[in-house]
Amino acid sequence: MTELMRAAAFAEPGGPDVLKVMELPAPQAGPGQVRVRVRAAGVQPFDAAVRAGWLPPYLGEMGYPRIPGNEFAGVVDQVGEDVTGVAVGAEVLGFTALSSYAEYVVVPAANVTAKPAKVPWEVAGGLTAGVQTAELAIDGVGLAEGETLLVHGAAGSVGTAAVQIARRRGATVIGTAREANHDYLRALGAVPVVYGEGLADRVRALAPGGVDAALDGAGGHALEVSMELVRDRARIVTLVEHGRAAELGVRLVQGDRSAERLGRYAALYAKGAFAFPVRRTYRLEEAAQAHREIETGHGQGKIVITI
Asked: Where in the numbering of this chain does the Enoyl reductase (ER) domain appear (predicted)?
């Protein structure tokens, strides 16, 4: 008999309401793979773009139904042949391309790392996208000590990570956010600035020496302001304007995620040396609501689905 699992999936692209809880065949671990019983899965703009019909080129053609979600935490319940260093019962966090909004996910054993006991499931499930996206983006723009980075959506999960990583590297960070989040950004070490008309002039006033690079977590007007302020468009990364990046000459996040990087930031969180707040958790049945919230582009911290 085929083993089944529950997953939040969609049978056709569209708005958040296309996400439905379905019973689908549960994946099985093959050679070099582990299967994880998922406890929490992070939600991010990448997932919303996939749900709307976009797929990163490296995935090729895919059929339906599709299960979004590329970050997770849970307990290993199957270990395939030729896997060493990961055992059934291990608590892990990890990453994949899709399929994390489900009771089970199968990934290469190299895609998981041990979850420290002091990292809650909700944090562990949403940590990878924030820290890996932020570090890869900052590496991609070549941010150096003494430079100024503009982060749009700085109070969100990727923004929160980016502010801390850039500050650790000796950069000045200007972060856009609603005024309610300004004290939060100051606590992270960023100089906050409010969104809206006149943003470019407000940033210029805060950075008379200019802005060297930008991380766009908001899109639209924020991306336009970034292009106005940053001389070299190759030093602008957008997290949301996937379809326009090439024509505008700005970057998408490039590079490989790694379990080493994920484990490094999980350890920092466990030591109290890295902040990563969870804004809200949703049940699997509420995946559509989670997508509605992520698409507002506002809010502090990470959105997570618990399973």
From this structure: 14-305
